[in-house]
User: Fold these one by one.
Assistant:
Number 1:
Amino acid sequence: MIDPDLCTGCEDCTEACPSLFKLGSDWIAVPTVDTVPPELETEAVKTAELCQFEAIRIEND
Ligand code: SF4
């Protein structure tokens, strides 16, 4: 999930991983999927670490 209160819409995540993140109409990033596919898990974690505002949180089931 992406915390809308922390996201600044900097687009780092959407540029690094467009498969999982897109910019919403209000310039807040939103995930493109509810559940990260196994083949994109590593990329999801790397992109979450890339967010300098710590707005991306990945939860395990
Ligand atoms: S990298 Fe973080 S702050 Fe930037 S758009 Fe993505 S979630 Fe928002």
Note: The chain has one domain: 1-61.
Number 2:
Amino acid sequence: MTLAGRVAIVTGAARGLGREHALLLGAEGARVVVNDIDAEPAQMVVGEIVAAGGEAVAAPGDVATWETGEALVDLAVETYGDLHVLVNNAGNVADRLLVNMTEDDWDHVVRSHLKGHFVPTRWAAAYWRQRSKGGSEVRASVVCTTSTSGLVGNPGQSNYGAAKAGVAAFTVVAAAELGRYGVRVNAVAPLARTRLTESVPALAERMAPPSDPGAFDPWHPANVSPLVAWLASAGCEVTGKVFLAQGGKVELFRPWSVEATVEKDGRWTPAELGERLR
Ligand SMILES: NC(=O)c1ccc[n+]([C@@H]2O[C@H](COP(=O)([O-])OP(=O)(O)OC[C@H]3O[C@@H](n4cnc5c(N)ncnc54)[C@H](O)[C@@H]3O)[C@@H](O)[C@H]2O)c1
């Protein structure tokens, strides 16, 4: 596995999971573009990476805006000469039961995750296609962030779940399209204690740190980062997959697949289908 010399963008890297991904990529030798909509904590993460002997630059901005996506890729290439890794991690929640959900709750969450994945991937992919067509060997990796909320469903999160299911679909489509340019695309569904989970009382309690500070903390966000780092590495060959990571556990999700088929030589009537599909 090698991350040495690779140039990586991590979106939403000022805190939580993104911060841990950026710190680990930096510690493993990658040069990191630290994006977040919050400039000050993003700059602090840059300081941490540099203090640990790594290289990093801050790139504040809303990742769902077209200009920020382009600027992130430009900054990586201008500062470090290339781009190899994009970790799409930024996003937020606005949990509400469907009947109470506002248009803003829906738009804000769907935008940050879905458009927030699309925009930087679009600009990075254009860069990699140009490199590949110019004859350079591209060994690039995009790591997306989905959620069990989108893969198995979670009441109160119709906006977030729909967006995260969309991220899983986006991952599969992008992997199929970009493989020809040397780009792999995978997704990780993390489970970890962050600002996002601490805002939900039931989760905050379930994910509390262990009382023994020396014990393994199964909800620490840094537990997710080794999977992201491996997927980002030059030696990894996996593409189009969706994983879950929590504590010491990594799971590979099976894609949507056909469970049962009924078929006849002609068009069904509704009543016939009712008989067969009960
Ligand atoms: N924590 C979990 O258990 C869990 C579970 C499933 C999925 N996720 C996903 O993991 C990712 C990271 O979440 P987290 O738990 O670390 O939450 P977090 O709130 O700690 O971190 C998210 C970061 O993204 C930034 N951000 C939000 N919108 C942005 C935008 N438009 N542009 C740039 N930055 C933006 C925030 O400022 C914040 O720093 C999210 O995509 C989240 O949906 C987390």
Note: The domain at 7-277 is CATH 3.40.50.720 (Rossmann fold).
